[in-house]
Amino acid sequence: MLRQYENLKGIGFSRNIQIRGFITYIKVHINSFKAIICSIIMITYNDLYEALRKERYSEPLQQLSKTFIEECANYFKDKKEFLDKDEGLFSDLAAKNKKKLENAIAIFKELLVRRRKKILNLAFVASETGISKRDFENMFDFEKDMFESLVKALENADKDLNALINGVKEERSNRLVRFLQDVPEFLDLNGETIGPFEKTEIANLSKEIVEILSKDKRVELIDED
Q1: Do the Cβ atoms of 45 and 100 come closer than 8 Å?
Q2: Least trusted range by pLDDT, from 26-40, 51-65, 124-138, 206-220
Q3: Which of the following CATH numbers is that of domain 174-221: 1.10.3470.10, 3.40.50.360, 3.40.5.50, 3.40.50.1100?
Q4: Confidence check: pLDDT of 201 > 90
Q5: Which DSSP string corresponds to 20-77?
Q6: Is residue 90 helix, strand or coil?
């Protein structure tokens, strides 16, 4: 495309006109440039399969690029848009592409499940002996948040166990409830956003919030004191 623009130089335009023409040319073909860039950096089906293979047959948590999730999302979006535009919906090619997309999504889900299982195991280990720096660095940000929450929950469970063993019963600050109706988003006593919640959904909420919701008959207690 740039080679085509070189032909403009022979017309004898002034430098300013040439620059404006070049800018216009870029604007007209910007989508083409984006497509070329995306085709270079977009993840492929084989990349997804290879990531799952490594995660499946290795004990440590595998390192993936920081943009892996975003690249997968773009891959799925691109393939779905391609299928939506495919006029021959019942053609063999369309059927194969649809099946390939379904397989890619299944591979992606299995990959995340396997990583989640490893992180669960790492949380158990970390609560006892700590975690290696490598394992932690190989996690995505949302996986790190999940890991830290799991370790904290295990530590709290150990504290509760030790208290029971020593004959000390601490008053619980949270209660497990089931919602009896849909409840829109609201603010807790600290001004933090909670919800929304759907009917039959189960949640672990502060005792003060549970008391308010119970008075309005919006929740029922699942656990017992």
Answers
A1: yes
A2: 26-40
A3: 3.40.5.50
A4: no
A5: HHHHHHHHHTHHHHHHHHHHHH---HHHHHHHHHHHHS-SSPPP--TTHHHHHHHHHH
A6: coil
Number of Cβ within a 10 Å radius of residue 43: 20
What is the per-residue pLDDT for 37? 42
| Lowest mean pLDDT, pick from 5-19, 89-103, 195-209 | 5-19
pLDDT at 81: 86
Task: Tell me how far apart the alpha carbons of residues 192 and 170 are, in angstroms, rounded to a whole number.
Answer: 25
What's residue 13's pLDDT?
Answer: 43
Residue 44, pLDDT score: 93
Question: Topology of 42-165 in CATH?
Answer: Methane Monooxygenase Hydroxylase; Chain G, domain 1 (1.20.58)
136-168 b/e (C-beta count within 10 Å ≥ 16 → b): bebbeeebeebbeebbeeeeeeeeeeeeeeeee
